Amino acid sequence: MSLTLLSCEINDFTKDDFSYGWTNYIQSTSSDRTIPDTIKNFYKMDASTLAFRIMVEDSFMRENIVEINENIVDEIYRDLICIYNTKKYNPINLIVDKYPVHTRQDPSLTRLILVVDTNQQWTQAWRNGNRLTGNQQIDNLILTYDLQLGNQWFFSNYHTLISPRPLNLLALRNLFKKIDGVIDAAPDGLIGDGNDIVFGYGRSNRLFTFKLGWGDCPAGCMHSHYWEIAVTVGEKVKFIKEYGDPLP
Predict the structure, then answer these.
(1) Using an 8 Å Cβ cutoff, are 189 and 108 in contact?
(2) Mean pLDDT (whole number) for 45-69
(3) For the chain: N or C, fewer Cβ within 10 A?
(4) What is the distance between the alpha carbons of residues 21 and 228, in angstroms, rounded to a whole number?
(5) pTM, whole model, 2 decimals?
(6) What are phi and psi of 163, to 5 degrees?
(7) With b meaning 16 or more CB within 10 Å and e meaning fewer, what string describes 98-129?
């Protein structure tokens, strides 16, 4: 069954024209010029997280490619901005204002935890709070990816390296683990459950599922509510459906 695309501009509609089930696509825009930087940064991280999830479906890329594909990040970011720019309509206003939903960053794309052998001389630099160690392999990775040394752990052989931009830390950990003196390395992670966005490709559009979770989420959310939204390459947005527990 084909879907009819509206050619009219988004401003041709009023807030009450659609409610929990739009009959057509609405023309939107990926322009973010009027969006606050804080909100843009949230959606940029969301886009990086969703691009990372696509990337790690390929086992070679998951284990070997540190950089996340910027073209995919940009594509998803523009889609998310298109959705944000339809927030005058129900229920998009709930997703972006009342219950702002963003991706769950597990594993982390910015925080890498390393366990090191404190008998190695180069590890003394980190214990002293110095970013560079004198170990050429370690320092090359730090400089290549602009990694910063995080706060000290209670355990002297645990250290955190922080990236200023999202990276595939599953691949980066493998590079560190090849270095003498690195006992283990892994991206930081989260416990429990929480809000999230799931992304997928349709035949003629891109599909987003926004999940709101609540109720003891550190142990696994007791309640969840979902919204499904489609975006076309022509920056048209369609609310598809919502389901789950009644909203709090």
Answers:
(1) yes
(2) 97
(3) N
(4) 10
(5) 0.88
(6) -95, 135
(7) ebebbbbbbbbbbbbbbbbeeebebbebbeee
Reported as a pLDDT band with limits 50, 70 and 90, residue 60 is very high
Q: Closest Cα partner for 71 from 96, 86, 54?
A: 54
* Residue range 173-224, pLDDT digits in tens: 999 999 999 999 999 998 889 999 999 998 889 999 999 999 998 888 999 9
User: What single letter denotes the amino acid at residue 177?
Assistant: K
Boundaries of every domain in the chain: 18-106+192-244, 111-187
For residue 178, which amino acid is it?
K
| Res 4: pLDDT | 30
CATH class of the domain at 111-187 = alpha beta
Convert the pLDDT of each residue in 4-49 to its tens digit. 333 233 333 333 333 455 668 899 999 999 999 999 999 999 999 9
Residues 167 and 185: beta-carbon distance below 8 Å: no
Sign of CA dihedral 100, 103, 105, 111: negative
How many angstroms separate the Cα of 81 from the Cα of each of 39, 43, 46, 47, 235? 10, 8, 11, 10, 10
| CA separation for the pair 123, 182 (Å, rounded) | 9
> Measured in Å, how far apart are the chain's first and last C-alpha atoms?
35
